Amino acid sequence: MEPTHLSGDNVMHTLYGSKGSGSAAIEVALERCNASFNVVRASSWEPDSALEDLERINPLRQIPTRVLPDGTVMSESAAILIHLSLVFPESRLLPDSPNRRAQSLRGLVYIAANCYAAVSVSDYPERWSTNPDEAAINSVRTAARAQLHRHWEIFADLFSASPFFSGERPGALDILAAVISKWSGTRAHLKTARPDFLRTLHTIEKHPDVATVFSRHWDA
C-alpha cells in the first residue's frame, strides 16, 4: 500500500494497515479529519510487510494500529474512531445529538465486541480449540461464521439509518459498519437476510467521504 499524505494539521500520523482490511475505516476517518498521515503496509498474512515493526509497538500485531504524532500507540478500531472524533470535533464523526451520539457509541462497541470477535474466531479457529483434528477446527469455524452473521442481523435490527446511522452524513459508525461488513465477507449473507441493511451499506460506501478510500482497498 502506498503511503498517503494529506494536508491539514501539520503533524503526521502513522497507520499500520493493509489493502482490503479494517484499516480502511481509519483511513476514511483520517481523511475526514483532514489529518496528515502515512500508511505502512503491515499484516500477519503478508510476510514481506513491516510486520516486525508492527509487532514492536503492538505485540498482538493488529491492524489497524495508529501511531499519534507524539508517539502514542493506539489500536482497536472503535477506540481510534472515538479518539479522532474527540480530537477533531469539527469532523462530526460522532453526531451532535446526544441521543444519536449515544447510539453511535453503542454501535461502535457492538461491532468491536461482537462482529470483530467472531471474525477472529472464524479466521483462526485453531486458536479456539484444544482438539487439533481438522473436523473439529472446521466445526469451530462454521459456528463462528454463523455467529458473525447473527451479530450483523441483530445490528441491522437495532440500528436505523436516516439516511445514515449518524444522521445526514456518514459518521464513525457508518464507516466502521461498511468496512467491517465488507472485509469480513458477510455481505452475501445479508443480501438475503437483511437486504435493506445491505442497501444502506452500499449507500455509505458510495458517499464521497468514503468512496475514494474504498476504491483504493476494493476493486468493486
Summarize the structure.
The chain is α+β, with helices and mostly antiparallel strands.
Mind explaining what this structure looks like?
- By secondary structure, this protein is of the alpha+beta class.
- Helix content is 55%, strand content 10%.
- It has nine helices and four strands.
- The chain has helices at 23-32, 51-57, 77-87, 98-123, 134-158, 172-183, 187-193, 195-206, 208-217, and strands at 9-17, 35-41, 65-67, 73-75.
- A four-stranded mixed sheet has the order 2-1-3-4, with helices on both faces.
- A hairpin with a 5-residue loop joins β3 (65-67) and β4.
- α1 packs antiparallel against α6 (172-183) and α4 (98-123) runs parallel beside α6 (172-183).
- The longest helix has 26 residues, at 98-123.
- It is globular and about 55 Å long.
- The two termini are 17 Å apart.
- Mean pLDDT is 93; it is low at 1-8.
Task: Please outline the helices and strands.
Blueprint: E1 9-17, H1 23-32, E2 35-41, H2 51-57, E3 65-67, E4 73-75, H3 77-87, H4 98-123, H5 134-158, H6 172-183, H7 187-193, H8 195-206, H9 208-217
Parallel strand pairs: 1-2
Antiparallel strand pairs: 1-3, 3-4
Helix pairs in contact: 1-3, 1-6, 1-9, 4-5, 4-6, 6-8, 7-8
